[in-house]
C-alpha cells in the first residue's frame, strides 16, 4: 500500500497566517524574490541603473510640471527633495499593490501543477519591491547630502526610529489591497484595467505632489478625503522624519495603522478562501 509523507487538506479557519508553512518554504520564497528582482531589468541596456533613472526622471518631470508651471508649494523645501520623498514612498506602496493584484491569474499555470503556500508568491513580490525601495531611499539620502553640502540643514530627530514602521505599513497595505483585488480578478477581469487607472487616480488623492496642509487650507470641506487617505499620514511622517516638515500626526498615523491591519486581515481571509477553488474560475 502506497504511503504519503504529506497530506494536503483545505483549511477552514477564517484567519490563517500559515507562518510556519511559509517558513518551511523559505527556499522557494528566496527563489521567487531573486527571480522577481533579476527578471525585472534582465536584458535591458541600463540594467539596475533603472532603479535610479526612473525616480530621477519622475522627480524632474514633477518639479517642472507641478513646481514650475503649477507653482504648487513644497513646504519651503527644495522641490527635488519634496517630490522625491513622495515618489519613494508612493512607488513602494503602488508597486506592491499592482504587482500582487494579479497573483492568481499570472501564476495559474504554476498553482495548477504543484502545491506550495500560495501566499509565498505575493509575499515574495513585497520583499523584492522592498529592495527597490531601499535603493530609492539611498538615492533620496544622496540628494539630501547634496543639499546639505550646499548649506541646507534638515533637523533629523528620534522620530526616524519609526521608519521601519512606515515601511511595514506601506508593504502590508499594498499586500492587503493586492490580495483582495487578486481574488476578485479570478472572476472579474475588469479589475485588471481598473487597478491601473485607480492607482493613478489615488496618487492625486495622496500628498505626493503637494503638502497635506495645502489641501486643508484650500479645500477645508473636501480636505478630509485626503487627510483620511491612510497613505497621507505615512508620506507626511516620512517627510517629517527626514526633512523636518510640519509635525508628526500621531493620531492619523494610528488611524493608518488600524486601517492597514484591517485591510491586511481582510485580504488574507479573501485570499485563503479564493485559493481553494480559483482554478475552476480562472
Secondary structure blueprint with pairings:
Blueprint: H1 19-24, H2 26-41, H3 50-69, H4 79-100, H5 103-106, H6 108-111, H7 120-149, H8 163-185, H9 190-204, H10 212-218, H11 223-227, H12 230-243, H13 250-274
Helix pairs in contact: 2-7, 3-4, 4-7, 4-8, 4-12, 7-8, 8-9, 8-12, 8-13, 12-13
Unreliable stretches (pLDDT < 50, length at least 5) are none
Average pLDDT taken over every residue: 86
| Continuous helix count | 13
The helix-and-strand class reads mainly alpha
- Distance linking N and C termini: 36 Å
The helix/strand series, from N terminus to C terminus, equals HHHHHHHHHHHHH
Based on CA inertia axes, which overall geometry fits?
Answer: globular
Kindly estimate the percentage of residues that lie in beta strands according to DSSP. under 5%
What helical percentage do the residues reach? Answer: 55-70%
What is the gyration radius calculated from CA atoms? 21 Å
Instruction: Outline the biggest β-sheet.
Output: none
Count of individual beta strands: 0
Amino acid at each position: 500500500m502506497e504511503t504519503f509523507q504529506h497530506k494536503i487538506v483545505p483549511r477552514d479557519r477564517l484567519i490563517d497566517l500559515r507562518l510556519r508553512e511559509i517558513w518551511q518554504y523559505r527556499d522557494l520564497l528566496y527563489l521567487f524574490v531573486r527571480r522577481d528582482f533579476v527578471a525585472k531589468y534582465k536584458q535591458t541596456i541600463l540594467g539596475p541603473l533603472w532603479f535610479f533613472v526612473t525616480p530621477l526622471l519622475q522627480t524632474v518631470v514633477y518639479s517642472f510640471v507641478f513646481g514650475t508651471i503649477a507653482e504648487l508649494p513644497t513646504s519651503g523645501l527644495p522641490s527635488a527633495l519634496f517630490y522625491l520623498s513622495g515618489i519613494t514612498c508612493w512607488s513602494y506602496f503602488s508597486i506592491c499593490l499592482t504587482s500582487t493584484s494579479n497573483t492568481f491569474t499570472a501564476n495559474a499555470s504554476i498553482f495548477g501543477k504543484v502545491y506550495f503556500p500560495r501566499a509565498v508568491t505575493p509575499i515574495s513580490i513585497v520583499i523584492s519591491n522592498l529592495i527597490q525601495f531601499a535603493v530609492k531611499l539611498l538615492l533620496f539620502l544622496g540628494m539630501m547630502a547634496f543639499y546639505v553640502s550646499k548649506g541646507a540643514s534638515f533637523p533629523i530627530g528620534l522620530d526616524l526610529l519609526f521608519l521601519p514602521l512606515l515601511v511595514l505599513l506601506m508593504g502590508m497595505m499594498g499586500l492587503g489591497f493586492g490580495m483582495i483585488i487578486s481574488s476578485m480578478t479570478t472572476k472579474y477581469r475588469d479589475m485588471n484595467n481598473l487597478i491601473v487607472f485607480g492607482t493613478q487616480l489615488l496618487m492625486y488623492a495622496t500628498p505626493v505632489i503637494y503638502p497635506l496642509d495645502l489641501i486643508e487650507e484650500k479645500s477645508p470641506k473636501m480636505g478630509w478625503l485626503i487627510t483620511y487617505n491612510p497613505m497621507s499620514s505615512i508620506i507626511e511622517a516620512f517627510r517629517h522624519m527626514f526633512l523636518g516638515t510640519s509635525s508628526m500626526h500621531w493620531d492619523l498615523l494610528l488611524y493608518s495603522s488600524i486601517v492597514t491591519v484591517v485591510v491586511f486581515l481582510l485580504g488574507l481571509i479573501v485570499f485563503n478562501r479564493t485559493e481553494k477553488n480559483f482554478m475552476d474560475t480562472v
